Amino acid sequence: MNEESTMTRIEARGLPQKLSGVLRLLGHIPHDLIALVSRISIGAVFWQSGQTKLDGWRVSDNAVYLFQTEYRLPFIDPWLAAHLAAFAEHLFPALLIMGFASRLSALALLGMTLVIEIFVYPDAWPTHGTWAVCFLVIIAGGPGRISIDHFIARHFARTA
């Protein structure tokens, strides 16, 4: 056997071990980091969407027009829908990014995402699915230790 084929076999045996080590390392990514990235990134998406609905400090005529013509939600007046969406797309992302009432905020925005998916853009399910995963990480696992929710919970745990 030549030296080159021996080295190839040694390298091949080491590959599964190296891969296993990398996978083990990836398994140690802390939930706190994952939750923080989820909160900030999905919060920014909805905040920016809310910003497009404003003209200064009021809901723009264009936003109302979109709810009348393109979005056309059932059971709700377009003027009211535009105002509720603009409010929700500012309040819940701000709370989410701060990590305050995080699970509630993620649940509210997940509900909004479902409405968008079902009634407005049903073909955009890959994007909405990505958003839903961010929300589910927060709903199921909590906002992580880098959040106001964590500090409140810690405070009440000490006083109990």
Which properties best describe this structure?
single chain; 160 residues; mainly alpha; two-stranded antiparallel ribbon; 2 strands; flat
- Given helix and strand content, the structural type is mainly alpha
What number of domains? 1
The helix content, as a percent range, equals over 70%
How many helices does DSSP assign?
Answer: 7
What low-confidence regions span 5 or more consecutive residues with pLDDT below 50? none
Shape assignment = flat
Main-sheet strand order equals 1-2
Extended strand count: 2
Measured by DSSP, the beta-strand proportion falls in under 5%
Radius of gyration: 23 Å
Order of helices and strands: HHEEHHHHH
What's the average pLDDT? 93
Q: Whole-Å distance between the termini?
A: 71 Å
Biggest β-sheet: count, sense, barrel? 2 strands, antiparallel
Concise summary:
79% of the residues lie in helices and 2% in strands. The chain has seven helices and two strands; from the N terminus they run H-H-E-E-H-H-H-H-H.
Characterization of the model:
This protein has 160 residues and is mainly alpha-helical. It has one domain (30-159). The protein has helices spanning 3-26, 31-52, 61-71, 78-98, 102-120, 125-141, 148-159, and strands at residues 54-55, 58-59. A two-stranded antiparallel sheet has the order 1-2. A hairpin with a 2-residue loop joins β1 and β2 (58-59). The protein starts with a helix and ends with a helix.
SSE topology sketch:
Blueprint: H1 3-26, H2 31-52, E1 54-55, E2 58-59, H3 61-71, H4 78-98, H5 102-120, H6 125-141, H7 148-159
Antiparallel strand pairs: 1-2
